[in-house]
Specification:
The complex is a heterodimer of chains A (about 400) and B (about 270). With about 400 residues, chain A is an alpha/beta fold. Chain A has helices at about 35-50, 55-70, 80-85, 105-115, 130-140, 150-155, 160-165, 180-195, 215-220, 225-235, 250-255, 285-290, 325-335, 345-360, 365-375, 400-405, and strands at about 25, 25-30, 75, 90, 120-125, 145-150, 170-175, 200, 240-245, 265-275, 290-295, 295-300, 340-345, 385-390. In chain A, the strands form three sheets. Chain A has a six-stranded mixed beta sheet, with helices on both faces. A four-stranded antiparallel beta sheet of chain A has the order 1-2-12-11. With about 270 residues, chain B is of the alpha/beta class. Chain B has helices at about 5-15, 30-40, 65-75, 80-90, 105-110, 110-120, 140-145, 165-170, 190-200, 220-225, 235-245, 255-270; strands at about 20-25, 50, 100, 125-130, 150, 155, 175-180, 210, 230-235. Chain B starts with a helix and ends with a helix. The chains are: A alpha/beta (about 400), B alpha/beta (about 270). The interface of A and B includes residues 35 and 191 of A.
Amino acid sequence: MDTQSAPSTLPNSFRSGPDNEGMFGIFGGRFVAETLMPNILELDDAYAAAKKDPEFLSELDSLNKHYTGRPSPLYFAERLTDHLGGAKVYFKRDELNHTGSHKINNCLGQILLARRMGKTRLIAETGAGQHGVASATVAARFGYPCVVYMGAKDVHRQSPNVFRMRLLGAEINSVTAGAGTLKDAMNEALRDWVTNVDDTYYLIGTAAGPHPYPELVRDFQSVIGRETREQMLEREGRLPDMLVASVGGGSNAIGLFHPFLDDDTVSIVGVEAGGKGLDGDEHCASLTAGRPGVLHGNRTYLLQDAEGQIEEGASISAGLDYPGIGPEHSWLKETGRVEYVPIMDTEALEAFQLLCRLEGIIPALEPSHALAEVMKRAPQMGKDQIIVMNLCGRGDKDVFTVGEALGVEL
Amino acid sequence: MTQRMSDCFARLKDENRPAFVTYFMGGDPDFDTSVKIMKGLPGAGADVIELGMPFSDPMADGPSIQAAGLRALNGGQNLDTSFAMVRAFRETDTSTPIVLMGYYNPIYQYGPERFLDDAKAAGVDGMIIVDLPPEMDEELCIPALARDLNFIRLATPTTDEKRLPKVLSNTSGFVYYVSINGITGAAAPEPDEVAKSVAHIKAKTDLPICVGFGVRSAEQAKMIGRAADGVVVGSAIVSTVAKSLVDGKASDSTVDDTLALVASIAQGVRSARS
């Protein structure tokens, strides 16, 4: 098997992956230590049964509705649209969810799986702290002890979220290995899991890791795209012309994109963190500037040196600060179905401020990257065209980082 | 099984003693020191050598081996220098089996076929790639077996009845039984539990069973060696290298201290059945 070449033919459907081995083309798979294999296979079985179980699905629907506040609104950003002077811009308002981001969608699905599997302890990794907060939240809601692994650098720059997690009863484990960001937190969470494999459920926050995580995280996040589709048909009587979402690991993006992948009139754009520019090493644009490799249980695009040692990402947004990307995104890039572009820190900061002033919404720095791309695209499109952007998180957690970047003493 | 590997275990069987399998990190803290350690291992009592290949993100390793990998990477270690170490070793020792141990991504970037060809040419006998379970055998295991290189698999306490046959299929050289659920260098294994597990695996395969993770002293090695065909020691060796360093660099005692530790644990292994 030649595993290094791109697929030569396009699939009939972009929505049928992964295969039974967890592969999206050459991407994905189960590259984990043997200790974890029985657990991963058990999770695969448990999820296969759960997604066919009406009781599981209705409990999840009910939590989404009454606990999270779904469906989230699809909001027409009128003043932004006027300002940009082109396509109509809609926001999928997942920042209005309980806990302030899309991360809760996945956490509710996975805590129900953990309970089904009889696990009694939760662990999670977090970058920006949004997934950590969502994990701590469901742990509290379902009465689970929870340990959150977080890079030391992120603990510092996301201190409001650290305090939130502690209030919710989670234990924060600050990881000083490496650069002290999301990659290092994930290594440490995997070490915990290998050690406590019998009772512990690893609640992965993004659509990456060994199979079946990329699939199940995508499925739990696809509620975003399903609602968007329905709401758009209701509001405009047609599908949007373009979807835009930020990608770090890629869970909010795959959640929005997946239900639209087979609609060929919908063009799809994923926005990576370009950091301080792709020429140097301070960015997180794995798809634009990386190449396929194997890390954290899956084959995917990675930032790495010539010898396969993983490099540290860098971004003003802690949530995008990861040198990999979910394997399905790697496949969507190689098949050409989704276009991936980088946005620099400075562009994201500008977009962040614009949205505060034009729409009265303080966005997280992650969707600010998507917004910066919308600001480039919308003016090039006709006024009869429609863009939907996933506004996947709110910016309260980022005000200190933004203040520092703008030279304001808080 | 390579000739060297089968000769080694056949000889140990005749001598009625378990193999002493020693892991050290290639290139830690520098190439020359590391070659000296490697060349001294058989004289200090090692029967099989595991040569660690450093990786930036060693997810199954504890702090000692993580730190050793970083020192080796900072010292310029890569797959080319790993092969150079094997070639240097083979100039004076053609009988001790050498097993490369590490993670898949550096191999994937090097090119799996090229990696196997270069390993074979350098005098390597087998490999343990932590993040390649049987489900991913197409990647490296099958091509390795086709070249008569051993692909040594890890079995763990989580490897149940149902999974064991899958783990044993395509395994060659020996089976590496990971005695605890956890990372390298963590809690000490319980000898009675280990003996039970080894007996269980032995019922399903003719391959030798070597036991590792958490074995740090001659006394522990002696206990584990009663039931196992081999005892693997890694973190204790790597920690001894670390302790001998001065300002992160090799000192006059680095090679001697490391080989002295190996010799002392070898005594435990050799007295396991006497």
